Amino acid sequence: xxxxxxxxxxxxxxxxxxxxxxxxxxxxxxxxxxxxxxxxxxxxxxxxxxxxxxxxxxxxxxxxxxxxxxxxxxxxxxxxxxxxxxxxxxxxxxxxxxxxxxxxxxxxxxxxxxxxxxxxxxxxxxxxxxxxxxxxxxxxxxxxxxxxxxxxxxxxxxxxxxxxxxxxxxxxxxxxxxxxxxxxxxxxxxxxxxxxxxxxxxxxxxxxxxxxxxxxxxxxxxxxxxxxxxxxxxxxxxxxxxxxxxxxxxxxxxxxxxxxxxxxxxxxxxxxxxxxxxxxxxxxxxxxxxxxxxxxxxxxxxxxxxxxxxxxxxxxxxxxxxxxxxxxxxxxxxxxxxxxxxxxxxxxxxxxxxxxxxxxxxxxxxxxxxxxxxxxxxxxxxxxxxxxxxxxxxxxxxxxxxxxxxxxxxxxxxxxxxxxxxxxxxxxxxxxxxxxxxxxxxxxxxxxxxxxxxxxxxxxxxxxxxxxxxxxxxxxxxxxxxxxxxxxxxxxxxxxxxxxxxxxxxxxxxxxxxxxxxxxxxxxxxxxxxxxxxxxxxxxxxxxxxxxxxxxxxxxxxxxxxxxxxxxxxxxxxxxxxxxxxxxxxxxxxxxxxxxxxxxxxxxxxxxxxxxxxxxxxxxxxxxxxxxxxxxxxxxxxxxxxxxx
Length: 645
Description:
two-stranded parallel ribbon; 6-stranded mixed β-sheet; 645 residues; alpha/beta
């Protein structure tokens, strides 16, 4: 099936996820160690957008993002599945603990530690009665959170704090012992003493920065930051037959989809969704707070430790009664343990400007991705279209209310055109919300309704009062207590992207994601890009002023330009028809103009982003999309009132 290579780096735990997944599947591969201070031409070629590891190379294909790689692996190689076969179980697997914890001080560190402890508590609950997160064997979530068992003790020793206590987290502690004794995992762990020395060197670089002055201090700070990048999602990159795959989770999915032996993800769609849920939880909750605790002191460290403990308790519960998160064997979770736009919307001043700048950068990337395509999915709506589909509808509202501009037709012609196409897709249009819906949640809700309508699934919609959440919402989404939540025969699935994949795996008609594992990995990559780059900066631009807004607008434009390139030559992000990504970004062409008007900024310009602009027209004219769009005047009034608050 092609040669397999992994681009990684010594200090980072993320390449280990990919290696573990490949070993679990029995796949032979070549490991290439990257110098993150002097990144190789191969890494820059295989992961030109993020320039990070891990990257999986499979033949001529490259896959980035560790979680995406894990799913690719599980879908490519069916043996030893990481995610469950049942769609509901698969959806339940995806949770998140994002990594940013070890770079703070004082109160910030305390907060991170507190949040991490909360995340651990959740994981402790998830382990309840299980050997692994996957059940009786290692599964997807076991691989995701597996780094905790080896790296966390080193961090604790360096910083003088304790998180993974055997008395507080008995299930997690026992799971850690079992996980580290799985032969093929144990042999790929870096020596603890060497890891401690390398991390200490990074910390010394930070100390040196504060001991020097002027230019010397700037040099020391730069050196320390470069050293610390190894702890972030800088690597690995998997090379498979000349194809680069970056980002550890992306690589894991690529490996699992390419090599079927020892599957990382379950076959059952529900079990796969559950695995993804817990993986997301581990990424966003545990890792972030652990790193914050690592780089902070005093009250900030205390809070980070407390948060980390809470998260680990949750993981500990999840492990109860299981050998691994994957069950009796290692699974996806065992391997792993719209941000800029939202920041633009909810921030002000310098923070908003920074978010707008980031959003522009990310939108430029989406703009490039759209070049030559009707939708992100190609000729029809695909997975990525659904993920970013909120942009054409909600972003204009955010721009108008926030007084900033991102989705400019001149700057992002492809995104702007895609927005119109997406919002005119019938099943998209009919599910767009009335203007009096709560802005923070409605975008994600539309994605789910669009997907169900596109699949021809009859459903009941239950309106939630988010100021007085119902017992049903608290029962079915006790971890996050947010919407949307999909109830399927009494089974609850939370997190909009997890729900989308569950829907696509449960009902096969009108597929949102491509069948080819590599194409699926690429779609997931763009979905992650849109969620983290475009949405965050647009919201930041909306809620900020002055330099902060300028920065956020610039960042959003950059991201939209990337989307513009992706749309080139395509009707939709999904290809000739609406796909996953079309639904994800489909709200931009409708909402963004409203946000631009209220906020006094411009992003989706037809001249700058012709493909996005044309796509927006096509999307908004799809019947099921169009009929669900709220009246523009009411939406405008709602967003304007929202900003006044």
